[in-house]
Write a structure and sequence with these properties.
This is tRNA pseudouridine synthase A. This protein folds into 2 domains: about 1-95, Pseudouridine synthase I, catalytic domain, N-terminal subdomain (Alpha-Beta Plaits); about 110-240, 2-Layer Sandwich (Alpha-Beta Plaits), CATH 3.30.70.660. The chain contains 5 helices and 10 strands, in the order E-H-E-E-H-E-E-E-H-E-E-E-H-H-E. It has helices at about 25-40, 75-80, 135-140, 190-205, 210-220; strands at about 1-10, 45, 55-65, 85-95, 105-115, 125-130, 145-150, 165-175, 180-185, 235-240. It is globular.
Length: about 240
């Protein structure tokens, strides 16, 4: 049987989602917990990977099991074996053709930035920028990314393959000195959100013009964006499926 889980985690003390030898990872901790229930090796499949120090509000993963537990017991059982910086919000049985990654139709990321005085209690959760930014300039610049584009200039240098993605929305708003960047798209390549946000921050700081970001975008990878926002402050907010 296939189980779909929604998980929330604080990425501060993890070396990313994907299993790595000798490193603490989200996938590693979850698989250890589920293996204690399944009593056999279990691989989980997530909607996507998050990098070191990146958080998730509603990440999704699935796994297959021979264990015939009542559906409402899976959440409690997995959480029992998890550390306190990972928490299963929901667990339910799904059809065998469901796949956490390939069945997803949209993803939403959020990035939080503090323009006020440095706050040591927020340092792992909100990027402590500490200076004012021009919100209107940033909002205007963000619009150039809306629609379907080749985002090769805004992905990791080691990323190959299809870099064409559709960005449905890129909203920016501020409340009490905290700026929230909200991006929804049909998918994101590695570091793509951080490069997009990093470029927009440079526009808001009046270091570059939006036209320079447009040149990077239209170059399809020839002119790379060298601005990458820090991982602290980035959240995988939501993964959307057809049934949602």
């Amino acid at each position: 049987m296939r189980v779909k889980c929604i998980v929330s985690y604080d990425g501060s003390r993890f070396h990313g989602f994907q299993v790595q030898n000798h490193e603490r990872t989200i996938q590693g901790e979850i698989q250890k917990a589920i293996q204690k229930i399944n009593e056999e090796g279990t691989i989980i499949h997530a909607s996507g990977r998050t990098d070191a120090k990146v958080h998730a509000v509603h990440q999704v993963f699935h796994f297959d099991t021979r264990k015939n537990l009542p559906e409402n017991q899976w959440k409690r059982a997995i959480n029992h074996f998890l550390p306190n910086d990972i928490y299963i919000l929901d667990a339910k049985y799904v059809d065998d053709d469901f796949h956490s990654r390939y069945s997803a139709v949209k993803k939403e990321y959020r990035y939080l930035l503090n323009t006020k005085e440095y706050n040591p209690f927020q340092t792992h959760y909100i990027y402590q920028y500490g200076r004012e930014l021009d919100i209107e300039r940033m909002k205007e610049a963000a619009q150039i990314f809306i629609g379907e584009h080749n985002f090769a200039s805004f992905c990791s240098y080691d990323q190959y393959g299809n870099t064409i993605r559709h960005l449905y929305s890129f909203d920016i708003f501020q409340e009490e000195g905290i700026i929230t960047f909200r991006l929804i798209g049909n998918g994101f390549r590695r570091y793509m959100v951080r490069h997009l946000v990093g470029g927009i921050i440079q526009v808001g700081a009046k270091r570059i013009q939006k036209e320079q970001l447009l040149e990077m975008l239209e170059s399809c990878g020839e002119k790379k964006c060298l601005f990458k926002a820090k991982p602290q402050g980035l959240y995988l907010q939501e993964v959307y499926y057809e049934e949602d």
